[in-house]
Design brief:
By secondary structure, this protein is an alpha+beta fold. It is built from three helices and five strands; from the N terminus they run βαββαββα. It has a single domain, classed as Alpha-D-Glucose-1,6-Bisphosphate, Chain A, domain 4 (2-Layer Sandwich), CATH 3.30.530.20. The protein is elongated. The two termini are 29 Å apart.
Length: 126
């Protein structure tokens, strides 16, 4: 299991969070490939990985960085069965309120759609 580079505080601060789970009809190796492809295709920078799980950060231009904080996410790949894999997406962004909550939900929804699209491409190739 990978450990985040930043210290996780036990205190709750002004952070908006959102989590989703996807079940893919793929073995674990193919699901990891689909996740890597989705992260490369999207605007995500991998900050830490153990080859199977990923800590990522949204990357965007200078102007966007001045206007908003990047979303951080953990992509955790879990064995469900021989032909099914569960992907857990946990996202957070600094700040709270409706704007930050909406932004983290939208970022995780985009990441989920990218992973599902990559998984569909992997199953179509097989």
């Amino acid at each position: 299991m990978i450990e985040p580079r930043w210290q996780m505080s036990t205190k709750t601060g002004p952070v908006s969070k959102h989590a989703e789970t996807i079940t893919l009809p793929l073995p674990v190796e193919a699901a990891v490939e689909a996740c890597q492809e989705a992260l490369r295709a999207g605007n995500w920078k991998i900050t830490n990985t153990d080859g199977r799980n990923f800590l990522v950060k949204e990357s965007f231009g200078l102007v966007s960085t001045l206007l908003s904080y990047p979303t951080r996410a953990a992509v955790l790949v879990r064995d469900q069965s021989d032909n099914e894999t569960r992907i857990e997406l946990h996202g957070s962004i600094f700040g709270f309120g409706p704007l930050q909550s909406r932004r983290v939900r939208a970022a995780i929804a985009r990441l989920r759609a990218d992973i599902e699209r990559a998984a569909a491409a992997v199953t179509a190739d097989a």
